[in-house]
Design brief:
Blueprint lengths: L1 E3 L6 H12 L21 E5 L2 E9 L6 E9 L8 E6 L2 H15 L3 H4 L5 E7 L7 H7 L19 H19 L2 E11 L1 H12 L6 E5 L5 H15 L8 E8 L13 H9 L9 E8 L4 H17 L3 H8 L3
Parallel strand pairs: 5-6, 5-7, 7-8, 8-9, 9-10
Antiparallel strand pairs: 1-3, 2-3, 3-4, 4-6
Helix pairs in contact: 2-9, 6-7
Amino acid sequence: MNILKLPRLFKTQHLTLLMGLMLGATSVTWSATNNQNKNTMDIITEQQLKGTSQQFILTSQYTPHHYLINLYIPQAPAPKAGYPVLYLLDGNATFESARAIAQAMAGGSNKFGTDPLVIVAIGYAGDALFSAQNRALDYTSTVATNDKPNKQYSYGGDTQFLKFIDNELKPQIFNRVRINRDQQTLFGHSFGGLFTLNTFFKRPDSFQRYFAASPSLWYNNHVLLQEQDLWRKQSNQIKKPIYLMTTVGTSESSSDMQRSISKNAARDFFSGFSRVNTNKLHSWHFYHPSEQHIGNLYASLPKAILLASCNSLNNCQKLFDEQ
């Protein structure tokens, strides 16, 4: 694994700097050091009024990709057990919004029952918000050639991508920030939601909280529905408390992304998490009115921030249980 540190600002960072100046941030400091190693580029650290943001690139031994990692560390001191952490997929598209939401909500931590939250956004090197080919490989399970959504893309790399997160990315974060390893949350949307649920079903100990927004239930002949059936039969084996939240936009059922699954089948899938033989799973599902597929990504981020940072089951239930 190589850590590639950025020698210049990405376009998204230009926007960040401009936003910081517009919001009246007291100082923005960029530091860089020279390194003759051709595989190493300089790190960028942005000092902000409400926390610190770092940006670096990891080259994985498990996948063929260079990952652009954006890390947000809040200004508030870490709780005794360490900061809770939220890992965001599609990091190029989600980091700026998630950071702003976390900063805005920080003032209400006592009211909400939340702790200051570290955010780790996993993206790809480059300026694209969504890297379609890279995420197709990383976020999906194996699929037959005839069932590939796009014949030009490679699929089925989710196992290797999870190894990257667990074995390469997490140690980097643990070395940089004091993290509460019992309060780690994974967030994904669309194919990212598919990856999130696959991880929940197959490797639930990787995280303690999961958030799947608009998961691709249609993928590989509804493989998630089959995996849920198997998981429910074994749900009594869950040893530790685990939180799961799912969301869907009410206007996305007619879109191409939900093209091959009925509304009834989708509803049955989401309600199925409440029909399990365990008291260790705490799950919530929300429909976001009038949201299309992409809109539900951003509509879900406030709940993801709260789910990742609420500091007890009681406080989480106060936030999410509908009266």
